[in-house]
């Protein structure tokens, strides 16, 4: 406030010097007060503008949303991937979760995972992870539970933005939606998915103990299909994670496949997705939402690029989108 002080000093010692003992009747004092108010106002405007250039209003919105839509992230990793993969996830997007927990088959100093040993089958591991999170310390009915792989890149802020239109008491889960040849819906296991607290409760308390609702056999890589079947048997809805323009937010493959080139039907994993996508895919492309949430990372050092360009870079002159309230709102909103 150096300017303010110098103005005050100028008037106090200038030729219109005022009497402190008789302040209320002095016109000079009124003038001084107005000037002070004006300077203060200018100062506040300057503060507000510099705040805007730093993206401060967006940050304020994010702080409020972070309280309102709380996300507990579960990240699945393995001992042999801790150093090459897991730590890079920990050092980038996981800090945007309200809380997070790595789950692994081995311990690690930096990741501090919950360790699940002697479970070679993926489906048995998944069941154990969900049960552990529900039963031991981590459950909160206000939370959403993100279940991600160590090679997913997740924009947690956009996930909150999507989820703010839902209540964690709804029995619902979201992800990259597929269907089996028998027309059962499930979320692609290679992508991340998010469960409401009610969905987690139903899975752990109703589905897990009951073999007629939810298989207790080994299922290996079909764990994601089994999870979908169990969820539908306990009446948990497979939600639509697309935005109001039907653009996709949970992208199954690497960012460059979705925003740069296109899928390749001769690649086995792309073909699997193309055959099973719940939503029709035209021309080997998924329309990508401007509020996209999840991608796969093939080459791990890329995760730092993704993180920098999604969370840290400032684009000079960029303005706020007016559509911000409507991207996941009621379906009748048009672009
Ligand atoms: C799959 O299920 C959906 C919704 O239940 C239905 O609309 C659709 O016709 C079914 N498709 C096939 C091939 O059975
Ligand atoms: C398991 O689920 C089936 C089908 O909903 C139900 O009939 C049965 O009573 C359940 N068993 C137990 C032990 O809860
Ligand atoms: C698609 O994948 C196949 C098998 O990897 C490869 O030979 C082919 O060049 C790819 N096509 C395009 C258009 O990238
Ligand atoms: C939706 O996706 C299409 C195709 O990628 C794109 O042209 C359009 O700008 C996207 N719209 C929004 C609002 O994200």
Automatic annotation (TrEMBL):
Alphabetized GO MF terms: glycoprotein-N-acetylgalactosamine 3-beta-galactosyltransferase activity; nucleotide binding
Q: Which residues form the Fringe-like glycosyltransferase domain?
A: 71-177
Query: What EC identifiers does the entry list?
Result: 2.4.1.122
- What InterPro entries does the entry give? C1GALT1/C1GALT1_chp1 (IPR026050), Fringe-like_glycosylTrfase (IPR003378)
Q: Does the keyword Metal-binding apply?
A: no
For this UniProt record, give its keywords in alphabetical order, as a comma-separated list.
Glycosyltransferase, Membrane, Nucleotide-binding, Signal-anchor, Transferase, Transmembrane, Transmembrane helix
Family membership noted in the UniProt record: Belongs to the glycosyltransferase 31 family. Beta3-Gal-T subfamily.
Q: In which pathway does it act?
A: Protein modification; protein glycosylation
User: In its UniProt entry, what is this protein called?
Assistant: N-acetylgalactosaminide beta-1,3-galactosyltransferase
What GO cellular component term, any one, is given? membrane
Q: What is the organism field in this record?
A: Drosophila lebanonensis
Superkingdom, natural source: Eukaryota
């Amino acid at each position: 406030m150096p300017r303010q002080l110098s103005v005050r000093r100028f008037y106090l010692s200038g030729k219109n010097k005022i009497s402190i003992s008789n302040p209320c009747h002095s016109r000079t004092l009124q003038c001084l007060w107005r000037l002070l108010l004006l300077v203060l106002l200018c100062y506040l405007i300057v503060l507000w503008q510099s705040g805007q250039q730093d993206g401060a209003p967006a940050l304020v919105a994010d702080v409020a949303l972070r309280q309102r839509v709380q996300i507990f992230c579960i990240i699945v990793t393995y001992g042999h991937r801790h150093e090459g993969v897991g730590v890079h996830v920990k050092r980038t997007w996981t800090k945007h979760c309200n809380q997070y927990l790595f789950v692994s088959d081995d311990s690690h100093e930096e990741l501090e995972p919950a360790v699940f040993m002697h479970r070679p089958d993926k489906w048995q591991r998944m069941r154990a992870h969900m049960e552990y999170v529900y039963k031991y310390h981590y459950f909160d009915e206000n939370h959403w539970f993100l279940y991600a792989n160590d090679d997913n890149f997740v924009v947690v802020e956009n996930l909150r933005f999507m989820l703010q239109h839902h209540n964690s008491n709804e029995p619902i889960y979201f992800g990259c939606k597929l269907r089996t040849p028998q027309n059962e819906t499930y979320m692609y296991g290679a992508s991340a998915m998010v469960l409401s607290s009610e969905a987690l409760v139903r899975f752990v308390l109703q589905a897990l103990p009951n073999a007629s609702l939810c298989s207790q056999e080994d299922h290996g890589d079909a764990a994601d299909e089994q999870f979908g079947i169990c969820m539908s048997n306990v009446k948990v809805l497979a939600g639509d994670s697309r935005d109001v323009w039907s653009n996709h937010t949970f992208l199954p493959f690497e960012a460059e496949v979705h925003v740069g080139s296109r899928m390749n039907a001769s690649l086995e994993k792309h073909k699997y997705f193309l055959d099973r996508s719940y939503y029709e895919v035209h021309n080997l492309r998924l329309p990508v939402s401007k509020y996209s949430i999840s991608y796969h990372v093939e080459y791990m050092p890329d995760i730092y690029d993704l993180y920098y360009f999604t969370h840290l870079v400032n684009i000079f002159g960029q303005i706020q989108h007016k559509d911000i309230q409507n991207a996941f709102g009621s379906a009748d909103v048009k672009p």
